[in-house]
Amino acid sequence: MAAITAAMVKELREKTDAPMMECKKALTEADGDMARAEEILRVKLGGKASKAASRVTAEGLVCLNVSDDAKLGALVEVNCETDFVAKNEDFINFVNDLTKLVVETNPADVDALNATAFRDGTVETVRAALVGKIGENLSVRRFQRFETTDKLASYNHGGRIGVLVEHSGSDEVGKDLAMHVAATRPQALDANGVPAALIEAERSVAKQKAEEEGKPANIIEKIVEGSVAKYLKEVALVSQPFVKDDKQTVEQM
Q1: Last residue of some domain: 162, 184, 206?
Q2: DSSP for 113-168?
Q3: Least enclosed by CB within 10 Å: which of 3, 51, 107, 180?
Q4: Residue 229 sits in which domain range?
Q5: pLDDT tens per residue, range 137-191
């Protein structure tokens, strides 16, 4: 049996980007034949990716990318199984590069994105190889791409919450707006944009509460309308108190 040296393991790792122990095992199985070891790794890593595919991806990373002229932007969410992998450099680079790809190619949906040419293959083949290397299931969950004639500002909160805001103000104002949206999660730009279903749900809750408290029938409608008005101020972006200065609303900032 051929002796497996550290140099051989290093060479195979550089060629395949597989874990060191996997490289050593493959070289041992191939009796030192480098080409055969590469083939063994492709089979093993592919098998590992297939086994991982059934496992739940509950962690992950949200990444943003905005073009240099701030006219194009994208958010991408890729999930993994553990928080440990969410901090892995290879995983982070994969999500970052994927987000740039969305900005550049404008895929129609996740299936189209997975089939898009990427690095030395497609998004799907690169994802599968990364699953084999890391040993956890990874899934491209969703993405959104935006174009504007104004400007896009972005804010990413710990890789968990990503925000893109279309605006026509200064870069500082845009960043403040994006940060505010991440903190407050408004339902719409203004009261007119709040979905009717949400308003009706708030109206129903307020009415039921007033009735349970025994309020007179002629007062209930005023209570309900007051509750709805308060709700709309809370969920419409322009009427929310600005997070960096709650003495003014977003519209006044």
Answers
A1: 184
A2: HHTSEETTEEHHHHHHHHHHHH-S--EEEEEEEEE-SSEEEEEEETTTEEEEEEES
A3: 3
A4: 191-252
A5: 899 999 999 999 999 999 999 999 999 999 999 999 999 999 999 999 999 999 9
